[in-house]
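Intended use. Records like the one below are meant for learning the mapping from a protein sequence to its folded structure. Do not use them to infer anything beyond what is encoded.
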Amino acid sequence: MLLVSASVFLAFVYAGLLLVYLKGWRATPEWTLPEGYEPRTGISVLIPARNEADRIAACLRAIAAGSYPPSLLEIIVIDDFSDDATAAVVRKFRSGISIRLVHLSDILPAEHAMLANKKAAIEAGVALAHGPLIVTTDADCIAPADWLRIIASRFEAGDLQLLTAPVALHREKNLLQRFQSLDLLGLMGITAAGMHLGFQRMANGANLAYTKEVFENVGGYAGNRSLSSGDDMFLVQKIARLHTSSVAFLKNPAAAVRTEAAADLRSFVQQRIRWGTKNAALPEWPVRLVLLAVFLFCWSIVINAVIAVPAAAAGNYLFLQLLGLQLLIKAVFDYLFLREMCLYFGRADLLRWFVPCFLMHTAYVALIGAASLVFRRYRWKGRRVG
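Structure written out for the chain above:
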């Protein structure tokens, strides 16, 4: 009976969490670009890049074509020991914006070539930045035209030290990629709600802005440089400890940068294990507690599914009924939350894939969550990390 009680308890905890997140999302104020707004803040966009020769030009082209005044903008590409033509593509790129190329190989010793250097890349970029406002994105991201104007206008409107902004996927070709797209939209809603309600702070380094001054004041990534992942999460939680009311989520679909989902199962698993390896080290205990509750709930569904079939064959339908209750609760509250996010970001088309993605999410949380606890090494960008 302990398993039954725990399963029911976790199901209602999960439902309660999603209701809290839905309420928090709806309560998060939307920021719109003020009419007649003219920027006055210098921005340095940092783009860490490793082996991105095929995608870095599109990223730069989108930023250069944006509406931010070139006189207030610089782009710093930090080449992370690439062994393809990334640096050559950046050197050849022409626009009216200042673009600087920094080689980590000129800063770090040669043995770092096979290490995860994203935190070092960002620290190097911040040190060289001329703008008082730092914006980070990834080399495979496409930014919308008013992206930087919206970010700058929010900073100029009040006392703000860090702004985490939305990231979405596009150009999905298969079920796995559509699953990732739905999952990321849900994560954006959770990020916004947690920020607004003040009980958890999360971020995505593909769309993150902060003042250069606060980055230097908190010592950058001092204290967690040894962890290969989490440049975004550790920074937002570190800044929030000192400036609780000065971190926020930018709720505006026109500020969402877009990127492509992992192309196949292997790269997806490697990506999510990389994300999961930092969870136990996150300083905010509410984030860890929520992750644990969702992890245990999904595992209880898996366990009950394994037990239900032979139990039902023996005439005991308790676990089959319990499994049905868990799946019903998860499906209803997942759909309510994801529908809200899909409609807001203009991706109602993804809801057609909800049922298979819902089942995939249950298995994904259980299995990848467990794998991230067991496997601390993974392959990323041609490196063996961990």
